[in-house]
Each structure stands twice: as C-alpha cells, then as structure tokens.
Amino acid sequence: MANNIAKTNEFVDQVQPDFVKLMSDGLFNYGFNQPVDNPTTIYDGIVPIPDNHPWLTETAKLVTGQKKVIDNRLGFYNVFSPVTSLKWALSKEPDGKHNKKRPTSS
Fold first, then answer.
1. Can you spell out the DSSP letters for 73-99?
2. Contact (CB, 8 A) for 91 and 105
C-alpha cells in the first residue's frame, strides 16, 4: 500500500496532471468463493460483506492515502472491470463449482 501511494505521489510530482485516476492495485478482486457445497447457482450461500471487511477497509485506506498526495487535483476511483469480475464469477471449474477467487481461463 505504501509503495502504491508513493508511486502516485511520484507520478503527480513528475507529470503535474489536472486530474488523477486512483487505482487500488492489489485489491481489485474480492475473493467471494461459494460457501456452500453443491451450489445450484452462482448466488447460493453468498451474503453481503460487512462494512468493516478488510477488502473494503483496505481499499478505503489506500484511496484515502492517494487522495492526500494528489493535493487539490480532481481524483476519481472506479471499480475494477466489473465485466471481467462477472466473467470470472460465471466461470465454472471442472468440478462444476463457480470459483470466484481466480479466473479459470481467458
């Protein structure tokens, strides 16, 4: 996280952009694997994550740190490739389960 913030600061110092896209490198994907045996759909057993889940809190810390180093510049953050995340979520493993922690193939 510290390296990401430092590199954001270095980029802003060197390029002097008017705005900055904030990136949460290393926190792109939430590893929401199915918590039930023999799921019949990709949604079986999946529940909302709590507000204090590390995936959310670490993303918030990282983007907050980046916002500090871009000073008064406009910054924006977006969710990492929702279509790619959906593709991974819909992919089935050879055993028929939907493993959402990693892609099976591209």
1. SEEEE--S-HHHHHHHHH---TTS---
2. yes
Supply the pLDDT for residue 82: 67
Q: pLDDT tens digit string along 46-84?
A: 777 789 988 889 989 999 999 999 999 999 987 766 677
CB atoms within 10 A of CB 62: 22
SS3 22: strand
pLDDT band at residue 103 using 50, 70 and 90 as cut-offs? very low
Q: Where are the alpha helices (DSSP H) in 1-106?
A: 2-15, 54-69, 82-90
Contacting residues for 105 by C-beta, under 8 A, at least 6 apart: 91
Tokens 């019949």, residue located: 40
- Is the pLDDT at 32 greater than 70, yes or no? no
Q: Give the closest residue to 92 by CA, choosing from 83, 105, 80, 82.
A: 105
Whose tokens are 């993303």? That residue is 59
